[in-house]
Amino acid sequence: MNIDQLIHSLESKHPGEFEYLQAVKEVLISIEKEYNDHPEFEKAKIAERLVEPDRILTFKVPWVDDRGDVQVNLGYRVQFNNAIGPYKGGLRFHPSVNLSILKFLGFEQIFKNALTTLPMGGAKGGSDFNPKGKSDGEVMRFCQAFMLELWKLIGPETDVPAGDIGVGGREIGYMYGMYRKLARENTGVLTGKNLEFGGSLIRPEATGFGGLYFVNQMLQTAGHSIQGKTVAISGFGNVAWGAALKATELGAKVITISGPDGYIYDKNGIAGEKIDYMLELRATCNDVVAPYAEKFGAEFVANSRPWEVKADIALPCATQNELNEEDARKLIANGVLCVGEISNMGCTPEAIDLFINNKIMYGPGKAVNAGGVATSGLEMTQNAMHLSWSAAEVDAKLHQIMNEIHNQCVAYGRETDGYINYMKGANVAGFLKVAKAMLAQGIV
Ligand code: 2IT
């Protein structure tokens, strides 16, 4: 495989799709050696076939707001690869959503889902609709209009969407209601459902919980304990909430959360009712974190990111490229021990290079945050079996899956000096599974 040539051709075919090109480049560079060790991959043009989605659906979503005005948003579903199972991946509703972002997320999802050990292919979708500040009725009408197009493409054995940024239990509920009416069936076509109609216990917490199980394993493998460690978290949404809960439960001290307006530094630790308060903040939908500082007497630093704070563990939990080279330098200067991406592609390539070159433990999103989609996979299993597992059963399975992902990263990422390159490990392990499945199934 000539990586430069392939990237070059993608750059000219898809100009300006920066996030997509960034994600593809990272994977291709880290799998190059394994790829070239398998001439059959090259012969079947696995790389060229993997980097392009199977198909992309784009559609318009017209809906009527509370004033009676007609609004028009864009909707997308990127079905990337279904070699190992039905397309699976979240829907993101955020004004920044465009094809490049959904293609990067869909591409990452292929390898993440492969790592979970469950049979799920990779997909992603969403809209530039902004649920923040919208009434319940507006969100419902938008979700219904969105599903009016999407339902034709998806199904419990075909493509199973879920939530992502801006899509939680409420949005999934409205979309599920519309799907059920149109398809006249009750199936596990979406995950992240409420418990009353097929949802799984632990799903809301799963991304954060899984992230902490993984980070705990990283620390243990390197001979450290999470007990008493300080943790800088970004974001204050569902993922940050689950991460803060589990970090605290494991004996660490969470000292930051953040929003688009800046970050909170709470030297006393964000625990107990302070973690519950994150849910309250989120429910107001104003997308600001500042009110926390007033309520609990903590420090609010406007228009800055939490990576300037001294912390043992840094957990990006907000969005892509939220931790750059300068942030990485600050974290390293402050003695950071471990960086776990719980957001998708939370770190820029320059930041990742710095962590790896400085032998800092760095866990990539596709491994660290895979607990979310893994628990979605467990929700699909429960739906297919028409039963529901207890919280303890789901949590035990999630824990086991995260350990297994960690083992795969170590198996493929350990370098000669003993340093574990989790990025390489995750990319190679995820890639090999999908590549072998594609090879076995011929040119399709
Ligand atoms: O990025 C992700 O893995 C998710 N947003 C969850 C996807 C899913 O299908 O549960």
Walk me through the topology.
Blueprint lengths: L2 H11 L4 H20 L1 H5 L2 H5 L4 E10 L5 E12 L5 E7 L5 H17 L5 E7 L8 H15 L8 E5 L5 H15 L19 H19 L8 E4 L4 H12 L3 E7 L2 E4 L7 H12 L6 H6 L2 E4 L10 E3 L9 H9 L4 E3 L8 H9 L3 E3 L1 H4 L1 H16 L5 H23 L8 H19 L4
Parallel strand pairs: 3-4, 3-5, 6-7, 6-10, 10-11, 11-12
Antiparallel strand pairs: 1-2, 2-4, 7-8, 8-9
The structure holds (2Z)-2-iminopentanedioic acid.
The site of (2Z)-2-iminopentanedioic acid (2IT) has 11 residues, from strand 3 and helix 15.
Description of the structure:
With 444 residues, the chain is an alpha/beta fold. The chain has two domains: 3-186, Leucine Dehydrogenase, chain A, domain 1 (Rossmann fold, 3-Layer(aba) Sandwich); 206-363, NAD(P)-binding Rossmann-like Domain (Rossmann fold, 3-Layer(aba) Sandwich). The protein has helices spanning 3-13, 18-37, 39-43, 46-50, 99-115, 136-150, 169-183, 203-221, 238-249, 273-284, 291-296, 325-333, 349-357, 365-368, 370-385, 391-413, 422-440, and strands at residues 55-64, 70-81, 87-93, 121-127, 159-163, 230-233, 253-259, 262-265, 299-302, 313-315, 338-340, 361-363. α13 (349-357) links the parallel β11 and β12 (361-363). It is globular. (2Z)-2-iminopentanedioic acid (2IT) binds next to β3 and α15.
| Class derived from helix and strand content | alpha/beta
Write the CATH architecture name of the largest domain: 3-Layer(aba) Sandwich
Q: Give the CA-CA distance, first to last residue.
A: 20 Å
Provide the helix percentage: 40-55%
